[in-house]
Amino acid sequence: MKLFLLLAFCALTAQAQTLRPWKGATPALELSSLDGKAQRLEDYRGRVLLVNFWATWCAPCLEEMPSIERLRRSLDARRFAVLAVNVGEGPRAAGDFAKKMDLGFNFLLDRDLKASRAWGARVLPATFIVGADGVVHYSYYGAIDWSRADVRAAIVRLIVE
């Protein structure tokens, strides 16, 4: 019975967690996409951006990817985009995963971990919500259901600002 209560409490706590307001400067981001083209944070100015640091060996990262895709599909592509930053792996590992999961967002490669360190992605997954102004507004460390109503609402508020 105690174990059941503990598990129920943990499940409720996990559901209650939400995006955390970001404090501090927005780090630079310039990485190569899977096809070798340079992508910069500035390239997305005017759109709200979900920047997700992940790896193929990270089970929670893989669990949350479908919800990121659901969120992406539910929002206007002219006003919202996703950058999935693969941490420490090559284009083949990240590309094979993207094809297998049928994900329609952009994948970037942080092979030397410089971007991960600059963004404070100490645990994976680590996700940051950047407003259309190019400033990080929220962060979340760990997996979350990105299609959850309260999470989606926070992102939509940034889109309509």
What does this structure look like?
37% of the residues lie in helices and 25% in strands. The protein has 161 residues and is of the alpha+beta class. The N and C termini lie far apart (48 Å). The longest helix has 16 residues, at 59-74. The relative contact order is 0.22. The protein has helices at 2-16, 59-74, 91-101, 114-119, 149-160; strands spanning 20-21, 30-33, 38-40, 48-54, 80-87, 106-110, 126-130, 136-141.
List the helices and strands and how they pair.
Blueprint: H1 2-16, E1 20-21, E2 30-33, E3 38-40, E4 48-54, H2 59-74, E5 80-87, H3 91-101, E6 106-110, H4 114-119, E7 126-130, E8 136-141, H5 149-160
Parallel strand pairs: 4-5, 5-6
Antiparallel strand pairs: 1-8, 2-3, 2-6, 4-7, 7-8
Provide a concise account of the structure shown:
The protein has 161 residues and is α+β, with helices and mostly antiparallel strands. 37% of the residues lie in helices and 25% in strands.
**The biggest beta sheet, please?**
8 strands, mixed
Radius of gyration from the alpha-carbon trace, in angstroms? 16 Å
Number of DSSP-assigned strands: 8
Question: Which spans of ≥5 residues are poorly predicted at pLDDT below 50?
Answer: 1-16
Category by helix and strand content: alpha+beta
Report the sheet-strand fraction.
15-25%
Instruction: Sum up the overall morphology in one term.
Output: globular
Order of helices and strands: HEEEEHEHEHEEH
What would the average pLDDT be, to the nearest integer?
A: 89
Number of helices: 5
Helix % is: 25-40%
Distance between the termini: 48 Å
Strand order of the largest sheet: 1-8-7-4-5-6-2-3
